Amino acid sequence: MIKLSSIEKQFDGNPVLKNINLTINEGSVTALIGPSGSGKSTLLRCINLLEIPQAGELTIGNEHLSFSGSQRVSRKDIRRICQQTGMVFQNFQLFPHLTVIENIMEGLVTVHKQRPAQARERAEELLKKVGMIHKRDAWPATLSGGQQQRVAIARALAPSPKVLLCDEPTSALDPELSLEVVAVLKDLAKEGMTMLMATHDLRLAANIANHVVFLEAGEIVETGTSRDLFTRAEKPRTKAFISTLT
Ligand code: ADP
Ligand code: MG
User: Is domain 1-92+161-242 given the CATH code 3.40.50.300 in the classification?
Assistant: First the structure.
């Protein structure tokens, strides 16, 4: 479903991702763990092309793209790849001047050229799925963090992406509110949504992910099933990091 081969990303000459090779199977959930600054967000952003890698190859479904530092990636290529992905951010990033339902309809109407009636129907379907239909006409600022994140998940899912990328989806939430977001993500996982999520939340990772990737200083140190990695990691660096998670 998703394949990254030999991905390299530098910022001002500093390598941030080094020779990243990663395959994500359809319907699987992969947790991306690692210390702050290890490159988790950058890796997610390289998959939806919010950042452009300098080298390597990216495949999402039937879409394929090669990067070469000297060659610019066209807007058309960015759109083609980006449309395969949905992204959920740590701080929700809802549009404050749009109501809950408008937040979800916006991209469907402006980017995907759906008719408003069709977009509204899709938005309502997703709001029901994340348990937020009763807030459809509310302003984002009036919602709890957990509610905002559930709306953000609905928005990310609206165009039916091939993969949902989540960057620390519960990190800004109190434990109690994070539970409701974990529950929504768990339901999606059960339904077979392919997901890649950067997280410090052991409960989220152990509860939902089939696979865990440990990233340190821009390199994949170890990958494994979540069961193996959390209970019997092979590399000392992985073990040391996992012991810091709570
Ligand atoms: P993580 O999400 O694991 O905390 P990040 O991907 O945010 O790590 O950052 C990895 C490294 O890349 C850090 O050293 C960070 O300072 C650097 N970095 C991230 N984004 C940029 C940017 N836009 N410009 C320059 N450096 C960046
Ligand atoms: Mg990050």
Answer: yes
